[in-house]
Amino acid sequence: MDAPELVRTPLYRPAEVAKVLGCSEWWIREQARKRRIPFSWIGGSYRFTDGHLTEIIRLFEVRPTEAGPVSCEQAQEPRARVPRAVQSVTRLRARTPRRALGADQ
After folding, report:
1. Is 29 contained in some domain?
2. 43 is a domain residue
3. In this structure, which of 17, 81, 89, 97 has its CB flanked by the most CB atoms within 10 Å?
4. Residue 40 lies in a domain
5. What CA–CA distances, in Å, run from 103 to 43, 48, 95, 99?
């Protein structure tokens, strides 16, 4: 009987994944902890496969809208100024610190 061949899939640590994705290791761990990204829990720590990395990238992919291309004239159209209503302004005043109040007594 022949034993089945063991296929070794590389497992990446959060620091390695963060370096590949260009984000912080903390962000990777936080997203995995909140179950927002796929991961494997091996030996009490997060591990990621190539498939996990591909899926993480797909999850955070942003697609263009269906509106179509925007011309330069549309993109640079100036915004109309809206006049501000003239209102009375209440001037804020800082409160005296407690340590200054204690020194007077």
Report:
1. yes
2. yes
3. 17
4. yes
5. 58, 59, 15, 6
Joined together, the tokens standing for residue 6 give 């063991």
How far is residue 26's CA from residue 12's CA, in Å, rounded to a whole number? 15
**Domain membership flag for residue 28:** yes
Which structural domain range is residue 36 located in?
14-59
Please write the tens of the pLDDT for every residue from 66-93. 876 666 665 666 667 766 666 678 889 9
The tally of domains found in the chain comes to 1
Which tokens go with 69?
Answer: 């291309």
**64 and 70 in contact (C-beta within 8 Å)?**
no
pTM above 0.85, yes or no: no
Beta bridge partners of 46: 41
Beta-bridge partners for 47 = 40
CB 13 within 8 A of CB 45: yes
